[in-house]
Specification:
Length: about 150
Amino acid sequence: MKKFDRPSWSEYFMSITELVSQRSTCIRRKVGAILVRDKRIIATGYNGAPSGIRHCLEVGCLREQQGIPSGERHELCRGLHAEQNSIIQAALHGVSIGGATLYCSNMPCSICSKMLINSRIVEIFFKEGYADPLASEMLTEAGIPYHQI
């Protein structure tokens, strides 16, 4: 019998976040996120401006123009984060995300972490870190495991 190499579930879902991130309209960082429950994708999201609003690709990056470092002053940005868009997509379609796992190309920031905690996400997998130590503090306190893979 021939043995096949298959990606683990985490590797599989993480690779899908990379594809989702390619839809991003952010100039600084392309981020993709997917919410998974029972090995099924229930929502996806990527970072970019809200629907109907000009994208940073068209008008430039407000954060770059003002010299705002990564991980600071999240409110000064035209875009939504990938995690926020995945939560919104689920809500728009009436899909509960309680009990789901988040796969994201970056570690969630503190704002997204608060949203994920209250959304009852049970675990987070991410590829790259993010300069926001408050996020990991809150996730740890909430008992939500997070893993860099």
